[in-house]
Amino acid sequence: MAEQVFREFFPLFDGVLVERNAAETVTKGGIMLPEKSQGKVLQATVVAVGSGPKGKGGEIEPVSVKVGDKVLLSEYGGTKVVLDDKGYFLFRDGDIIGKYG
């Protein structure tokens, strides 16, 4: 069964729902960054995962991440999903670059 945080949303197959980390608004030197120059945040936390895709023999292959993992994302990709007035992104397991920390 898929692990999830939300009772009303279950990603299908190799779907991974992530919450992007907040963009840094101040540099280490204390300079405030305008919104345009902040760039896209590529780090996120996994909040829900699907059960995994079906393999050639019909068996389910597990997804490579689990709820709570910190992941790196590609700059472009993912589908924006709004749940409980909060924005999340839905990626396929293969679109996630890797895990960290």
From TrEMBL:
The keyword Amino-acid biosynthesis does not apply. Coiled coil: none annotated. One of its GO terms (molecular function) is unfolded protein binding. SMART domains: Cpn10. It comes from the Eukaryota. InterPro entries: Chaperonin_GroES, Chaperonin_GroES_sf, GroES-like_sf. Gene3D superfamilies: GroES chaperonin. Keywords: Chaperone. Belongs to the GroES chaperonin family. Homoheptamer arranged in a ring structure. 2 heptameric Hsp10 rings interact with a Hsp60 tetradecamer in the structure of a back-to-back double heptameric ring to form the symmetrical football complex. Co-chaperonin implicated in mitochondrial protein import and macromolecular assembly. Together with Hsp60, facilitates the correct folding of imported proteins. May also prevent misfolding and promote the refolding and proper assembly of unfolded polypeptides generated under stress conditions in the mitochondrial matrix. The functional units of these chaperonins consist of heptameric rings of the large subunit Hsp60, which function as a back-to-back double ring. This is 10 kDa heat shock protein, mitochondrial. It comes from Canis lupus familiaris.
